[in-house]
Design goal:
Radius of gyration: 31 Å
Helix content: 40-55%
Bound molecules: zinc ion
Number of helices: 11
Largest sheet: 5 strands, antiparallel
Structural class: alpha+beta
Length: 290
């Protein structure tokens, strides 16, 4: 553009008037097309990129619970749908049994679930890797009939936790069964701070030592000061994390590789937290949150 302007002198005046306008336009267009577009594109990408994430997660995860589509079968379920019961503790403290998993879905929308590694893969060369599904076979005349079992744990990180065992001929129904049973088996645990090394007033640990046993497996859970973390095996940690316990020391004895017995022992230990009667005067000392 600059060379064209200098060479023809006669048209200088016209071009000077036109050219700067054009160049300005070109510059503005360049800036509009060049710099802002370079800025705008990442913005669009930034706006669009996170959006598929949650959508994808929603699509992969279980569908959201629809309370209107639910037809309660038990009296308690009807009360929950009518709105007479709004708190899960009302359900857990009542004499009646929790028989519908949808009650838990309706009252605890923030519930999370996880699967415990109770199975083991077969094979040579370091086989025996931990799996979610425990595969077993029945020998029949027609051939081998495999079946899958899994162990699910649900919790809201606020003192409610449940463990369920499900078994089926296929993997997906086994998982659904396990999660449904885990919701029905939901229990409330006392959280607190029973550690003498910690003088905080927060329910980050358990209030006292508890022990559970199933088969040869014994699990002992001990209160720990803040910042300790979960000093326990991976499966114990999963359960405690979903229960909302952050700091704990643990000790296990027996054949802990039989994970079904291990999960049962954890469940019994957690149940013991509620079975122990605590006097009112100690409740404030142990910072128990109920
Ligand atoms: Zn503490």
């Amino acid at each position: 553009m600059a060379k064209d302007e200098k060479e023809p002198k006669a048209e200088e005046a016209e071009k000077k008037q036109e050219a700067p306008a054009e160049s300005k336009e070109a510059e503005t267009s360049k800036t509009e097309e060049g710099e802002p577009s370079a800025e705008a594109k990442p913005h669009i990408e930034a706006n669009t990129k996170p959006a598929p994430g949650p959508r994808g997660r929603d699509a992969r995860g279980p569908p959201a619970f629809d309370i209107d589509a639910w037809k309660p079968k038990t009296e308690m379920g009807k009360k929950v749908k009518m709105g007479d019961i709004t708190d899960i503790d009302q359900v857990l403290n009542s004499d009646k049994k929790l028989l519908e998993a949808e009650i838990v879905d309706a009252l605890l929308p923030s519930l999370e679930s996880d699967l415990l590694l109770i199975g083991q893969s077969k094979g040579k060369f370091g086989g025996g890797q931990r799996r979610v599904f425990r595969q077993t076979q029945k020998k029949t005349k027609e051939g081998n009939k495999p079946s899958f079992a899994t162990c699910a744990v649900v919790g809201d990180h606020k003192g409610h936790v449940g463990i369920g065992y499900g078994k089926s001929r296929e993997t997906v129904p086994a998982r659904e069964k396990a999660i449904r049973r885990a919701k029905i088996n939901l229990i409330k645990i006392r959280r607190g701070c029973g550690s003498w090394q910690c003088s905080c007033k927060e329910p980050h640990s358990i209030p006292f030592e508890v022990e559970g046993k199933c088969g040869s497996v014994k699990v002992k859970l001990m209160p720990a000061p803040k910042g300790t973390g979960l000093c326990a095996g991976s499966e114990i940690s999963k359960v405690l994390k979903l229960a909302g316990v952050e700091d704990v020391w643990s000790k296990t004895t027996g054949k802990t590789t039989s994970r079904i017995n291990l999960t049962a022992a954890i469940e019994k230990a957690l149940k013991q937290i509620m079975e122990v009667k605590v006097q009112e005067k100690f409740k404030s000392n142990l910072n128990i949150e109920e």
